[in-house]
Design brief:
alpha+beta, 11-stranded mixed beta sheet, 4 helices, 16% helix, globular
C-alpha cells in the first residue's frame, strides 16, 4: 500500500489495479481495511479506527483514492464531491492506431484526439445492472443520464495513445464507456471493446491527479499518482508534454 498524502483529517492512497476500495461479495480484503490497519498500527490506537470512504475506483483501475480520517472531513468532503469541488484527472492508454484514417469495417469511428487541446464528449448513458455495464447514446433515451467529460491526447504511439480525461459528471463506468463510444477503448478493457486483456487483469486507466481545497485548513492541495511500472506507460508518458508539478503543501 502506497500512501501519497496524509494529515490529521485526510489520507490519500495510490490504489493498485485489482484492489477493491470497500468490501464486496468476493470477501477480499478492501483497501479501506488496509488503511485502517495502517493507521491503527502507526498511531497505536486502542479502539476502532474511523475512516470515511468519500469516493471509489473500479476494481481494475489504479490511482488515487482519498479517505477521511475525521467525521468533520467526511461531511465536508461529501459536500465538496457532490458540488463538483474536487477535481479528478485521469490518464488512460487507449487503442489508437495512428495509421487508421476512417471508420473500421464494423463501422466504429476512428479514434482521433487533438494534441494538447481538450475536446468535450457528451453522451447519454444507461446502466445494465445485470451486466454491470453502461451503454452510450448520442441522444436522450429512457432511463439515461447525461455524461460529460473533457479529454485530450498527451502522446501517440504506433497502436496506442495516452490521453488525459477530466470528468464533469460522475456516471457508472463513464470514462470507459464514453471512450469506447468514440472508437477508443481503454487498453485491456474487454468489457468495452478492447482487442485483448492485460496480463494482470487491469485496464490501462489511472486516477492520475486530484486537486481540491482542504476541507479543514482551506489550503489548496494537488496530488499526483505515480505511473504504473509498465514499459508502455513509461514510454508514452515520456513522450507527453511536461506537466505542471503538483503542489502538496498543507
Amino acid at each position: 500500500m502506497q500512501i501519497v498524502y496524509e494529515d490529521n483529517h485526510i489520507i490519500i492512497v495510490s490504489k493498485q489495479s485489482g484492489e477493491i476500495v470497500q468490501g464486496d461479495k468476493t470477501g477480499d480484503e478492501p483497501l479501506s481495511e488496509k488503511v485502517k490497519a495502517y493507521l491503527k498500527e502507526k498511531y497505536q490506537k486502542p479502539g476502532a479506527v474511523f475512516l470515511g470512504v468519500v469516493h471509489r475506483l473500479d476494481r481494475p483501475v489504479g490511482g488515487l483514492v482519498m479517505f477521511a480520517r475525521t467525521s468533520k472531513a467526511l461531511t465536508r468532503l461529501n459536500k465538496m464531491f457532490a458540488a463538483g469541488e474536487v477535481h479528478k484527472t485521469y490518464w488512460a492508454i487507449v487503442e489508437s492506431d495512428n495509421t487508421k484514417k476512417r471508420s473500421d469495417k464494423e463501422g466504429n469511428p476512428a479514434c482521433r484526439f487533438s494534441l494538447s487541446t481538450f475536446q468535450l464528449l457528451e453522451h447519454w448513458l444507461t446502466r445494465n445492472e445485470r451486466q454491470n455495464k453502461a451503454y452510450a447514446y448520442d441522444r436522450e433515451v429512457p432511463g439515461s443520464k447525461l455524461a460529460r467529460l473533457r479529454c485530450r491526447q498527451l502522446a501517440q504511439g504506433d497502436r496506442y495513445a495516452l490521453v488525459e480525461v477530466q470528468l464533469m459528471t460522475g456516471r457508472h463506468h463513464q470514462i470507459r464507456c464514453q471512450l469506447s463510444a468514440i472508437g477508443c477503448p481503454i487498453k485491456g478493457d474487454l468489457k468495452y471493446g478492447a482487442r485483448r486483456s492485460n496480463a494482470d487483469g487491469s485496464i490501462s486507466l489511472l486516477a492520475r491527479r486530484i486537486a481540491f481545497t482542504h476541507p479543514v485548513s482551506g489550503t489548496d492541495i494537488c496530488i499526483e499518482a505515480p505511473l504504473p511500472d509498465d514499459p508502455l506507460w513509461q514510454a508514452l508518458a515520456a513522450k507527453a508534454e511536461p506537466q505542471t508539478a503538483p503542489q502538496t503543501s498543507a
